[in-house]
Design a protein that fits this description.
Chains A, B: One of its GO terms (biological process) is terpenoid biosynthetic process. Chains A, B: Belongs to the FPP/GGPP synthase family. Chains A, B: GO terms for molecular function: (2E,6E)-farnesyl diphosphate synthase activity; metal ion binding. Chains A, B: This is Farnesyl diphosphate synthase. The structure is a homodimer of 294-residue chains. Chain A is mainly α and 294 residues long. Chain A has one domain: Orthogonal Bundle (Farnesyl Diphosphate Synthase), CATH 1.10.600. In chain A, 75% of the residues lie in helices and 1% in strands. The first copy, chain A, is built from 15 helices and two strands. Chain A has helices at residues 2-26, 31-42, 48-59, 64-86, 102-105, 108-128, 134-148, 153-163, 170-194, 200-227, 230-233, 239-242, 248-252, 254-273, 280-291, and strands spanning 95-96, 99-100. In chain A, a hairpin with a 2-residue loop joins strand 1 and strand 2. Chain A is globular. The two termini of chain A are 21 Å apart. The model of chain A has no long low-confidence stretch (mean pLDDT 94). Chains A and B meet through helix 2, helix 6, helix 7 and helix 8 of A and helix 2, helix 6, helix 7 and helix 8 of B.
Chain lengths: 294, 294
């Protein structure tokens, strides 16, 4: 079963990468902008958000073709957020996954514009897609802009910056993660469920589950920054601490952080138990996110 | 008649300002982000793009209520572009209209996020509006993202940066302005016409007219940078030259630039003559944009 999941993830990564590159090819834009966009899209993230959207749709017997445009738009938004987040004015990172960050490869102005462009184009992709009715397009755009906007991801970014070098509580840290990464995870799974016509009350359960999954993802990120393998995580161990980032281990210590992760896992699985559908793939994601080494 | 135009502009500015502030009030967001967004929205631009959209709708007997959400979204996109354009990595401006730019008032990270937030929220505003059918929302979002995206405004920004300190032709300069400012002018007037159900061939004429109006706006901007009154334009005379910006006077000299402006005016008016509607207000905009002193 683990093998099935690995195959599913690899296949989805391959397909989403191909579709994103094909889509960028259809857009006419200046050479330097194109280079910069391709660079960051090709940088090869894990494509977790598209994978979660596809997996949710699969769990409810959805049609993959209906999922891809929304998944691509979501990954474009995620990519824009990384480009802007790496800028000197923000996290000031020179490398991401062992490759130069966009502004180091090009320059700050190009990176700002590449991010702005990806963000804008993500909405155009949905609006111009042939896979959706107008009603579906409006729903997806409304949810995506809410998840990414000033009450969502952008709010999380600013709260994260404000919290640096301050002592915050676990509740505050959870809130930052919910906004900064959770909202896009929730969008991924909610839209996967919406496009398979899952009923609204089960959709709410999926959103609750996605919230926990986001926290598991983040807490494992923090754990890897303390006890991970540099070659695998693609950045120096301890870099969060060096940047005075707020992390679970900073607030709870590493042992309690590992215990907290187990609590999130149990909560995630107990939410799934309320769903009357085939959920084995979703349970596997809980373990995958908890146990990942990069 | 000039008085009517002045009243129309003042009324529209007042209404759009009020509606934008009311709309921002409905959004829940962190305090610092809110301060930063309000600061730039309140900075009180001329609201030219919303005014053009309203004026176009008025010329075709449209309903103002249908126009405002699209006009607000457009102004939010314009405001985001100014915030990002002023950043040290881009134009590096400390003042805009005599007030500190967003990143000088706050900091670079906040300004980047405020811009990202406004851009994202502009699409949410359309998607959640009560004034449009789903079909209209999709049309507006498609056109807005096209005008602002990598084949539109963002393309213009990067070409403008690349052209700095180079010698470019008038055709190249016109292309940069078409992308950088023209596309949003065209969007303004096209949507004003679309929402009043103007037929597609007249809509094409309106787009041609908006293109010329954008060039008139820009050429007058360049002229004011050479012969304007600092107190009125709100920045030092000669600042384009200092930044090695490509301008009409740099390429053509000031006398030929004034002659070129007259040619654009004649072309704009001859396009209007093909339209079988009351067009006096649109003709007035040609003169207003040509003769403005700030």
């Amino acid at each position: 079963m683990k093998d099935n999941l690995t195959i599913f993830i690899k296949d989805t990564q391959k397909t989403i990468n191909e579709k994103l590159m094909l889509y960028l090819d259809t857009l006419s834009m200046p050479f330097r902008l194109k280079e910069s966009l391709y660079y960051s899209i090709e940088a090869g993230g894990k494509r977790l958000r598209p994978i979660l959207m596809l997996a949710t749709s699969n769990a409810f017997k959805g049609n993959d073709n209906k999922i891809y445009p929304a998944a691509m738009a979501l990954e474009m938004i995620h990519t824009y957020s990384l480009i802007h987040d790496d800028l000197p004015a923000m996290d000031d990172d020179d490398y991401r996954r062992g490759k130069l960050t966009n502004h180091k490869k090009f320059d700050d102005a190009t990176a700002i514009l590449a991010g702005d462009g990806l963000l804008t184009e993500s909405f155009r992709l949905i609006a111009n897609s042939n896979e959706y009715t107008d009603e579906q397009k409006v729903y997806i755009i409304s949810k995506l802009s809410e998840a990414a906007g000033v009450s969502g991801m952008v709010a999380g970014q600013i709260l994260d910056i404000e919290a640096e070098a301050k002592n915050i509580s676990i509740d505050e840290l959870e809130k930052i993660h919910l906004l900064k990464t959770g909202k896009l995870f929730i969008f991924a799974m909610e839209i996967g469920a919406y496009l398979t016509d899952l009923n609204p009350s089960d959709r709410d359960l999926i959103k609750e589950f996605a919230t926990k999954l986001g926290l598991i993802f983040q807490i494992q990120d923090d754990i890897l920054d303390v006890i991970g393998d540099e070659a695998k995580i693609g950045k120096p161990v301890g870099s969060d601490q060096e940047k005075a980032k707020n992390t679970f281990p900073k607030i709870l210590g590493i042992d309690e952080t590992v215990a907290q992760k187990k609590r999130y896992q149990r909560e995630a699985i107990s939410i799934l138990e309320k769903l009357n559908v085939e959920k084995s793939i979703l349970i596997e994601f809980v373990h995958l996110f908890s146990d990942r080494d990069n």
